[in-house]
């Protein structure tokens, strides 16, 4: 199994890369999806979030009000650290379970962990490759405003809440430049898949001997 980490700043085009790799046959494990699942109503994680941040972050239906929580933590590093201390261990356990499940299903699988906070939380894990989706912060801010409807201030705050581009690029084995056209991003992703495919072929060949 090839275990690949895919990361990038907010609005960097990371999800586009993940979808393309899935089309090629990669198994995508989405950290954001896991976060939502471990924060489901009735979960120990959600109970601890409510205890730490108050009932204002819980909606009328008992689910997490992600916007309310985001408003508390995006501009407050100490609050963000408290939240991460609650959420990250649960996400780590569930992601490990999914990696193992993928390996049990197909020993030659290419598993891509789509993880925004790699540098903050998982950079020391034994990845075969770390792939970084990269676009300049100014472009990502425009995308947040024009495509997601954020205000300039909110977009800037969300970018500032993440590690800077230099920190992500410093750990990259592969950088996919997403500042150009969609076609260019997809072509770079296709080239990445060609790099990953030999691992699959080698595994299949060794089992046939």
From TrEMBL:
List of residues binding ATP: 11-16
Subcellular location: Cytoplasm
Annotated SUPFAM superfamilies: P-loop containing nucleoside triphosphate hydrolases
Gene Ontology CC: cytoplasm
Keywords, alphabetical: ATP-binding, Coenzyme A biosynthesis, Cytoplasm, Kinase, Nucleotide-binding, Transferase
GO biological process: coenzyme A biosynthetic process
Root EC class: transferase
EC number annotated for this UniProt entry: 2.7.1.24
Catalytic activity: 3'-dephospho-CoA + ATP = ADP + CoA + H(+)
Job description of the protein: Catalyzes the phosphorylation of the 3'-hydroxyl group of dephosphocoenzyme A to form coenzyme A.
Sequence similarity: Belongs to the CoaE family.
Protein name: Dephospho-CoA kinase
């Amino acid at each position: 199994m090839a275990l690949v980490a895919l990361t990038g700043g907010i609005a960097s085009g990371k999800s586009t890369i993940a979808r393309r790799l899935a089309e090629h046959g990669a198994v995508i494990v989405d950290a954001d999806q896991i976060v939502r699942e471990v924060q489901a109503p009735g979960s120990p994680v959600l109970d601890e979030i409510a205890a730490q941040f108050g009932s204002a972050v819980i909606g009328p239906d008992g689910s997490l009000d992600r916007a309310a929580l985001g408003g508390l933590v995006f501009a407050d590093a100490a609050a963000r650290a408290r939240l991460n201390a609650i959420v990250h261990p649960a996400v780590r356990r569930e992601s490990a379970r999914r990696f193992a499940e993928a390996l049990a299903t197909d020993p030659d699988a290419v598993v891509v962990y789509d993880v925004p906070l790699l540098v903050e939380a998982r950079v020391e894990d034994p990845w075969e490759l770390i792939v970084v989706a990269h676009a300049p912060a100014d472009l990502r801010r425009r995308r947040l405003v024009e495509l997601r409807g954020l205000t300039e201030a909110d977009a800037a705050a969300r970018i500032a809440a993440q590690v800077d581009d230099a920190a992500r690029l410093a750990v990259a084995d592969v950088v996919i430049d997403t500042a150009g056209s969609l076609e260019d991003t997809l072509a770079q992703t296709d080239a990445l898949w060609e790099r990953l495919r030999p691992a699959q072929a080698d595994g299949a060949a060794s089992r046939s001997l």
